Amino acid sequence: MSYAACARAHVIDLASTLFLFVVASVSAGRVWRFPFDDEIYTLSLIQRYSALTLLTVFPKQTEVTPPLPYLLFYGLHQLGLSEGGMRLCSLAMTALALVLLQLLALTLIADRNRAAGAPATRLIAVIGFALTPLAISQGDALRWYPLFALLIALFLTLYLVPRDGAARLCSGAVLGLAGSTSLLAALVALALMAYRYGLERRFRWSFDVSYWLLAAAGAGLGVYSAVWTFATRLAVVHTEFEPNILRSVLTDALGFFGGDALGVSQAWIVAPAIVVFAIAAFSQIDRKHPGNPVHLLLLMLGSAAVMALVGFSKPRSFLFLAPVVAALLTLFFDGQLQQGRAGRVLVQVGLVLAAAVAAIANIDFGTHPFKRNSVIPYQNVLDFIHSNEKGGVLIVSTDPVVPWELQKAHDNGCIGYFFEVERCLNSVQRYDSVFVITGHSDLSANAAVMQKFHELLASITAGRRKVATIPVGLDEDAALKSRLTGVPLDRYILTVDLYR
């Protein structure tokens, strides 16, 4: 069955996946929510810089991510979209990535079985793709992950499905654009090389030279960023890697299969799902047909595993692999059903689904968070400040979200993240209410910075009395995390103190 014919035959399946994914995402608190720390970074960039600055100066001076995703959000912001509107665009990109890989999986199943997938397989595909936990937790992010996931899904579709070379050639340009979105595209390019030249044994000068020239052209922004990153900011690259390899692998596994939501003490929930997937991935190795398209998916997963083994512990960055995992599981379950193992499939699907549902349920409301600041009830902080502020207000916070939210509609005081409030301290200005919001942050391990910050707090609160304090956000895994990492963490994620 051709890809187009498969699409026509499974319109209802794809529509069901889209509907269920959007409903699950919104129900889990996605889209219309408070931003997280990295989103604050994106939002501040697109409001502070022009498109030309993002395109030229930014890649040389700031971080390792190429500028294409920032240019995208800059354009959406210029069109007047709110934060929620931009998140809807991110969610749409993630949703499209999911249905593209779902359709690819169903096409591969139809080719393998010489018939369309059975109703049970199609139902499993709808549930599996729609309830992919990492896609729901990170699919609306104002970061590069959704765009990258869409580009990789489109690349796979164009390369693996068409019978003509023109569409396959276009996949090179798409892969290049992925390289201008994230440097992780290099992993996909290496996987493609291993698949095309090592397994397919396919090399044609006319096609391959054109293909990689297109890819290089599309990846221009990524190459530009990579050159400046590795030439001038190698220390920043080192911070992306965890020295403890075992901790890196376990963090990536829990974060990926647990949707960046389940905490350390809840790892047992995802362990069975990881085992099922390991069996599924191994079973898809086709020793008789090295050029089997599934091998490209497996090679992509293998390259990501290598990244984890060298210390890269950023599971959110692997959002692009979430649809790939769902595709491999769908292929595996269909193969089991073809062999008459319906009972076994039911148990395995149940184990995978249990982990997905648990992760989705804990995205916003868990007390055992994977990432501590993802479950902070920021509205409680804002309500406490609004109900207790009097006269001139000074607010200093170690969390970037609170200042970002308060600065939108607060004109009778000074609000800042860490040392930003220094601009407001002078002998003339008098503040009647001082709010200090503190908690563990990325700077907590820097003794010199923290000492200077505590000195700043001492000078701000000198001569004042603490009249109220509230703990905000609960992490029941704090003690366990402290033992595992050696980083002292409080059970409460933030503390808000009021001085007068």
Structure description:
With 500 residues, this protein is an alpha/beta fold. Helices cover 61% and strands 7% of the residues. The protein is built from 24 helices and five strands. The protein has helices at residues 3-9, 11-27, 37-48, 51-55, 57-61, 68-78, 83-113, 119-130, 133-138, 145-160, 165-179, 185-199, 205-218, 220-232, 234-238, 245-257, 267-283, 294-309, 322-338, 342-361, 378-388, 401-406, 447-461, 478-485; strands at residues 393-397, 413-417, 433-438, 466-474, 492-499. A five-stranded mixed beta sheet has the order 2-1-3-5-4, with helices on both faces. 43% of the residues are buried.
Write the layout of secondary structure elements.
Layout: H1 3-9, H2 11-27, H3 37-48, H4 51-55, H5 57-61, H6 68-78, H7 83-113, H8 119-130, H9 133-138, H10 145-160, H11 165-179, H12 185-199, H13 205-218, H14 220-232, H15 234-238, H16 245-257, H17 267-283, H18 294-309, H19 322-338, H20 342-361, H21 378-388, E1 393-397, H22 401-406, E2 413-417, E3 433-438, H23 447-461, E4 466-474, H24 478-485, E5 492-499
Parallel strand pairs: 1-2, 1-3
Antiparallel strand pairs: 3-5, 4-5
